[in-house]
Design a protein that fits this description.
mainly alpha; 2 domains
Length: 100
């Protein structure tokens, strides 16, 4: 940071700092949204299955078949978890609406 000599420089520096603060806040919001999305059960299960199958594939070295099976398992698991997540969400919303 350079030395501020007058009011005009102070104002310019303040504006730059406020702009930088806004940019950092937006970056944090983006990061939190990505983190929230990555922690959804469907995404976590997909990551786990792909990791498990990737480890088995590297041991067996059947890459095309293994990748296909890994992808199929992760897609099916993601769909199943997504449906279950939706049903549980509906159930909780239904229960909370009945209490009021």
């Amino acid at each position: 940071m350079k030395k501020i000599k007058n009011r005009k420089q102070l104002k310019a520096e303040k504006e730059q700092l406020m702009l930088r603060r806004y940019e950092l806040e937006q970056a944090i919001k983006c990061y939190l949204l990505e983190l929230k999305e990555s922690l959804r059960p469907a995404n976590v299960s997909e990551l786990v299955f792909s990791k498990v199958f990737d480890e088995k594939n590297s041991a067996n070295d059947n890459s095309i078949l293994g990748e296909g099976l890994s992808h199929l398992a992760s897609v099916l698991t993601k769909k199943m978890v997504s449906k279950t997540e939706g049903r549980i969400g509906k159930w909780f919303r239904h229960r909370s609406s009945n209490k009021h």
